Amino acid sequence: MLENQIGKRFAEALSDSIEDPAKLSQALDSLTAISEAFKSDPNLNRFFIHPSFSEERKQDLANELCAKTGAGDEVRKLIALLVHRQKIQYVKNIAQYFQDFVDRRLNRVRVEVISAHPIGQAALDKLKTSLDRQLGRTAIINTAVDESLIGGIRLLVGSRVADATIKNRLEQLKNAIRNEEALSELAS
Length: 188
Fold this sequence. Notes:
The protein is of the alpha+beta class. The chain has helices at about 1-15, 20-40, 40-50, 55-70, 75-85, 90-105, 120-135, 165-185; strands at about 110-115, 140-145, 150-155, 160-165. It starts with a helix and ends with a helix.
């Protein structure tokens, strides 16, 4: 709960501090890369929360991370502030909320496409065009393969799900048969 409040507050402040839409995407890339660094190396988080390391050493490492990710001034200031306030461990939450703010400001929507088999580029382009038109926003498509689906695709757009998989259709058929059997038993 606290992580979400902190994440949202800092993400909103970062979003408000950047006026240029091109800088928004760059800031998101940098912040995501820094977040990924923390995720891939647990020692980073331990270093920043350990009381025996000075703030100066922590700021130096934070500056190195920013330099490696090509972070702009706004992200650098945010990371320095997080280190100073001992809240750098929330960078993952901040990055997630910042992505939402950036997507909203740039009129984008993220769509997860899960299919039983890899989808070709031509089909993805056609799907993207259709989603752009239907949603009224630019769709950013991420794909995943789940062989248990047998066939078809499942789309996740925010909290909405469109499931056109064979597995889902079979499950619906199975439930319909169960309901019909239950009704016929009641009628007997």
